[in-house]
Design a protein that fits this description.
By secondary structure, the protein is an alpha+beta fold. The chain is 27% helix and 39% strand. The strands form two sheets. Strands 1, 2, 3, 4, 5, 6, 7, 8, 9 and 14 form a ten-stranded antiparallel beta sheet that branches. Strand 4 and strand 5 form a beta hairpin. Helix 1 crosses helix 2 (124-144) and helix 3 (166-173) packs antiparallel against helix 5 (225-235). The two termini are 30 Å apart.
Length: 314
């Protein structure tokens, strides 16, 4: 058994149609799965990223789960080393490497479990950047082949935001003397309540009246540190919090969703993650995975036939 780092996030994808916003599952069979299985790579110098082993898992408790791996193909350069006597020596070696991470996205609520297989595995930030690139590149290539503009596919607005954990929030704020500014960045949501129930009416109305896809609310010099902690916790990954603070030693800092996101370590069979089903099963031990809003439920029931067609054939 090996111990892996696990993070929980909200995988939010909204497609920007001409007359509104469409949820991820509406285009699951025409964009999401074809794009992730297309083999499109995001290349950055000597490093490339791609998705592999993408599949649909059916679970009696959680419904349909989108699972797979993201691989970082790169070259490791060795410029120095220590000899047997402990002396620093120069080297000039290059070795190919392909560390990967595994993910499971629970399609009832778009909660995601992300597992880094080893040191050097793609981070969840890398995952976010690569999925944005792959989907956009797939859509661009598809649309370029369509003479009729009415057949064009819409482009997505993608947000991968960590689910805040109260323990991590408290830890991040424990040495804070005062909060200088709290920024709550919002974005189109895939069937979730806006900002969670606490802010639903306010943000929904602001977006509707302004026609804005995204934006932010700024609270200057909030006095209640515990109140700010409550706001971040209740946002439940539907908002990206940024907290600018002054610590007791008078230094200044910035706390983001990455800092307070739910993280843990879990044991996996073997040194490497082999089966996507193991990742999906591990995720079921996390409480946040089971929350499903009424909006999520309706969208899932309406579009689940678009998922079923990708189930493995016996």
């Amino acid at each position: 058994m090996s111990i892996k780092k696990v993070q929980v996030a909200n995988f939010n994808v909204v497609f920007l149609e001409e007359k509104g916003e469409a949820p991820l599952l509406k285009y699951f069979d025409t964009i999401i799965m074809p794009a992730l299985k297309s083999g499109i790579k995001r290349i950055d110098g000597d490093t490339s990223y791609r998705f592999t082993d993408v599949e649909i898992i059916e679970d009696k408790t959680c419904g349909y789960i989108l699972a797979g791996k993201i691989v970082k193909k790169t070259i490791v350069e060795i410029k120095s080393d220590l000899d047997p006597e402990g002396n620093l020596i120069e080297k000039d070696d290059r070795y190919p490497s392909a560390p990967y991470s595994a993910f499971a996205i629970y399609l009832k609520n778009h909660r995601m479990v992300y597992v880094q297989n080893q040191k050097g595995s793609p981070t969840i930030k890398s995952f976010s950047a690569v999925v944005k690139f792959v989907l956009s590149e797939y859509i661009r290539k598809y649309n370029s082949k369509q003479e009729n503009r009415d057949k064009h596919l819409p482009f997505p607005y993608i947000s991968v935001v960590g689910i805040p954990m109260r323990e991590n929030i408290n830890e991040a704020l424990k040495n804070v003397e005062k909060i200088n500014k709290l920024t709550l960045r919002f974005y189109p949501l895939n069937g979730d309540q806006e900002f969670g129930a606490l802010f639903d009416g306010v943000i929904s109305e602001l977006r509707k009246l302004s026609g804005s896809k995204n934006g932010e609310i700024v609270l200057k010099s909030p006095k209640s540190i515990s109140g700010v902690a409550d706001l971040i916790e209740q946002s439940a990954g539907t908002v990206k919090p940024i907290v600018e603070v002054t610590y007791v030693d008078k230094t200044k800092g910035r706390i983001s969703d990455d800092t307070v996101a739910e993280r843990m370590e879990m044991g996996f069979i073997g040194e490497n993650i082999q089966e996507n089903t193991e990742v999906a099963e591990k995720g079921k031990s996390i409480e946040n995975i089971f929350f499903v809003s009424e909006g999520n439920r309706k969208i899932y029931e309406e579009h689940k036939n678009k998922i079923i067609k990708f189930l493995p054939r016996e």
